[in-house]
Amino acid sequence: MPRDPSRFAVAERALWSKYGITPTEHRVTLPAGNDVRLQEIGDGPPIVFIHGAAVAGSSWIALADAIKDDFRCILVDRPGCGLSDPVPHGPLRSPADFKRFAEELTPAILDGLGLDAATIACTSMGGFFGFRSAIAHPHRVTKIVEYSWAMGTPMAKVPMLMRLGSPAPMKAMMVRMPISASAAKMMLKQVGMKRAIESGTFDDDMLAWFVAVMQHTNTFKSETDNNTFVSLKGENPEYLFSRAELDRLRMPVLLLWGDEDINGGVREAEAFAANLPNVTLAIVERAGHAPWIDNIEFCAARTREFVRNSR
């Protein structure tokens, strides 16, 4: 099926309209010449939101809506995702190239926005970008809020779907396959969204949005082309944060971690927190890999408190 980004834009507008919001949209040109698309709502201190794998910045809509009266929420479509331009100089198939790419994204966005520094909110693969940027450029990141297991930390279990989809021929086949609503639900459950799907907190509008991301943008192809974090054997250890790297993160860090996150649960959260010098760990009960979807009230309240008061 041909890609049609306008159909994704329709599904995304429908999701925003549920909250009665029309975001401000603009683009920032990065040093490599590619444009990154940003959507903004709210007023106050800036928070830059970096999404997880194979989605787009609008995955944060519910949380941004919940805190927009307190913060300027800047939702990023990572390069290659959503309606941003492709990853420059891709595909980035070596860990070293992907690390450099992750380290430079947030500072480049901040430069484009005219911001010296900001709080970074991130999840899953977005956590790799958030923490890598903070390790390399600590003066540009005032605080970090990580929602869920973060790529770069050990996984409790690598989902079989990710293992089987890692060889190049399987990636190529998966990218070409049409994604139905039922297939999308299966994929989401495999990566830690089972409760959100079964409870309906990840509702039909969000499902239509996710299918549109997969079907009508190059997001899924970009993500599979530009990352070798998982193989048939499991995690690639070259992507993992070292203790020395994490020790550089002297800014306040809040981990909002679902106790049902199959990628890494409470034990993995506690192990990660033990290596961070200035950390607050809050376990989100009855929550999976997207805890702000499972428990928006808890995550919004803890985010407000942390960003306002932590030092």
Q: Secondary-structure map with pairings?
A:
Elements: H1 5-18, E1 24-29, E2 35-41, E3 46-50, H2 61-67, E4 72-76, H3 95-113, E5 118-124, H4 125-136, E6 141-150, H5 160-164, H6 168-176, H7 181-199, H8 204-216, H9 219-225, E7 230-231, E8 234-235, H10 243-247, E9 253-258, H11 266-273, E10 279-284, H12 291-294, H13 296-309
Parallel strand pairs: 3-4, 3-5, 5-6, 6-9, 9-10
Antiparallel strand pairs: 1-2, 2-4, 7-8
Quick overview of this protein structure:
By secondary structure, this protein is α/β, with parallel strands linked by helices. The protein is built from 13 helices and ten strands.
Taken from the alpha-carbon principal axes, the silhouette is: globular
Q: Extract low-pLDDT stretches.
A: none
* Rg on CA atoms, Å: 18 Å
**Helical residues, percent:** 40-55%
Helix/strand order:
HEEEHEHEHEHHHHHEEHEHEHH
Number of helix segments? 13
CATH architecture: 3-Layer(aba) Sandwich
- How widely separated are the two ends? 50 Å
Strands, count: 10
Percentage of residues in DSSP E strands: 15-25%
Question: How many discrete domains?
Answer: 1
CATH H level: which superfamily? Alpha/Beta hydrolase fold, catalytic domain
The largest sheet, given as strand count, sense and whether it forms a barrel, is:
8 strands, mixed
Q: How would you explain this protein's 3D organization?
A:
Helix content is 44%, strand content 18%. Strands 1-2-4-3-5-6-9-10 form an eight-stranded mixed sheet, sandwiched between helices. Strands 7-8 form a two-stranded antiparallel sheet. With 311 residues, it is α/β, with parallel strands linked by helices. The longest helix has 19 residues, at 95-113.
